[in-house]
TrEMBL record:
<keyword id="KW-0812">Transmembrane</keyword>
<keyword id="KW-0997">Cell inner membrane</keyword>
<dbReference type="GO" id="GO:0042910">
    <property type="term" value="F:xenobiotic transmembrane transporter activity"/>
</dbReference>
<dbReference type="InterPro" id="IPR027463">
    <property type="entry name" value="AcrB_DN_DC_subdom"/>
</dbReference>
<protein>
    <submittedName>
        <fullName>Multidrug resistance protein</fullName>
    </submittedName>
</protein>
<feature type="transmembrane region" description="Helical">
    <location>
        <begin position="180"/>
        <end position="197"/>
    </location>
</feature>
<keyword id="KW-1003">Cell membrane</keyword>
<feature type="transmembrane region" description="Helical">
    <location>
        <begin position="272"/>
        <end position="295"/>
    </location>
</feature>
<keyword id="KW-1133">Transmembrane helix</keyword>
<keyword id="KW-0472">Membrane</keyword>
<keyword id="KW-0813">Transport</keyword>
<dbReference type="InterPro" id="IPR001036">
    <property type="entry name" value="Acrflvin-R"/>
</dbReference>
<dbReference type="GO" id="GO:0005886">
    <property type="term" value="C:plasma membrane"/>
</dbReference>
<dbReference type="Pfam" id="PF00873">
    <property type="entry name" value="ACR_tran"/>
</dbReference>
<feature type="transmembrane region" description="Helical">
    <location>
        <begin position="307"/>
        <end position="331"/>
    </location>
</feature>
<feature type="transmembrane region" description="Helical">
    <location>
        <begin position="204"/>
        <end position="224"/>
    </location>
</feature>
Length: 356
């Protein structure tokens, strides 16, 4: 029942590769021959085996022939219970039938009495579901859980379906922790930028560059069919620092020209153009460091390939954002007045530093 109703339907779910059953004890009839009784009757174990095999052969019982079709009649006359086997005639002696129960002990049992499974102190059948290579384990597990209520309704009420183990629980927790660390890294980066730049517009600019670079990286990940896992999230967390570096360097250089009296638009063009080659060379230098990871073999290479590509894409997009969006925002949001204006916290921290 479990094999035909449950296992077959689960194996048809997208992402499921292999479904195996263990612990299920198939019903069987066990025959224990009495050697003394067989010898006394002049029989052999081969005679008994041949009789049992011959009694369980399915063969056609006849046929119906018509003008346009012929139908073969078959019947399942295999013996199912221990009592039927006890009455099986295995030989004749002096015209009297010798039955299997006369020379053997026939009992109802299990096909493999050494194999069994228990769950919550109750005998059970364990079904192990494995995903296909490359399939998303979380989406596959979600699809299986969605089908479980439907499968449970098709089974007798005495049968209980329980999830004993789910690997996605730890995977989900690990991914959630990594996502929290990514959000925390972005928040800390913005806070530190504000503490050092002491200017709200100058803080907003790199604060906008970070999510835009990460969103662009996510788009490339979708195009390359990368999954969101611990390694890709770790790459995005590391890339947060590189994204901010490019934006801060551009902002500082543009701010320097604005403080000298240049107009914001001219300062943005001049400042970004002055360090554009430096940003590009730094970007390709960082990407070059990641190239060896692409050529690593075995399972390690497959694991770190997504990590290296994700980090390289994030660094490349951050360079594009820092040379395009960042100068534009500087020209719109920065001015001599905004750079000179400090809030209370900035003045208080400045006085404290000068006193120290």
């Amino acid at each position: 029942m479990v094999e035909t109703r449950v296992a077959q339907k689960i194996s048809q779910i997208s992402g499921v590769g292999l479904v195996t059953l263990s612990g299920g004890q198939r019903p069987a009839v066990r025959v224990k021959l009495n050697a003394q009784a067989i010898a006394a009757l002049g029989l052999t174990s081969e005679t008994v085996r041949t009789a049992i095999t011959g009694a369980n052969v399915n063969s056609a019982k006849g046929s119906l022939d018509g003008p346009s079709r012929a139908v073969t009649l078959s019947a399942n006359d295999q013996m199912q219970s221990a009592e039927e086997y006890r009455q099986l005639i295995i030989a004749y002696q002096n015209g009297a039938p010798i039955r299997l129960g006369d020379v053997a002990t026939v009992e109802q049992g299990a096909e493999n009495s050494w194999l069994g499974a228990w769950a919550n102190k109750e005998q059970a059948i364990v079904m192990n579901v494995q995903r296909q290579p490359g399939a998303n384990i979380i989406s596959t597990a979600d699809s299986i859980r969605q089908m479980l209520p439907q499968l449970t309704e098709s089974l007798p009420k005495s049968v209980k379906v329980t999830v004993l183990s789910d690997r996605t629980t730890n995977i989900r927790a690990s991914v959630d922790d990594t996502q929290f660390e990514l959000m925390m890294a972005i928040a800390l980066v913005v806070m530190i930028i504000y503490l050092f730049l002491r200017n709200i517009p100058a803080t907003i600019i790199p604060g906008v560059a970070v999510p835009l670079s990460l969103i662009g990286t996510f788009a490339v990940m979708v195009f390359l069919d990368f999954s969101i896992n611990n390694l890709t999230l770790m790459a995005l967390t590391i890339a947060t620092g590189f994204v901010v570096d490019d934006a801060i360097v551009v902002i500082e250089n543009i701010s320097r020209y604005i403080e000298k009296g240049e107009k914001p638009l001219a300062a943005a063009l001049k400042g970004a153009g002055e360090i554009g080659f430096t940003i590009i060379s730094l970007t390709f230098s960082l990407i070059a460091v990641l190239i060896p990871l692409l050529f690593m073999g075995d399972i390690v290479g497959r694991l770190f390939r997504e990590f290296a590509i994700t980090l390289a894409v994030a660094i490349l997009i951050s360079a594009v954002v820092s040379l395009t969006l960042t100068p534009m925002m500087c020209a719109r949001m920065l001015s001599q007045e905004s750079l000179r204006k400090q809030n209370r916290f900035s003045r208080a921290s400045g006085k404290k530093c000068s006193t120290g």
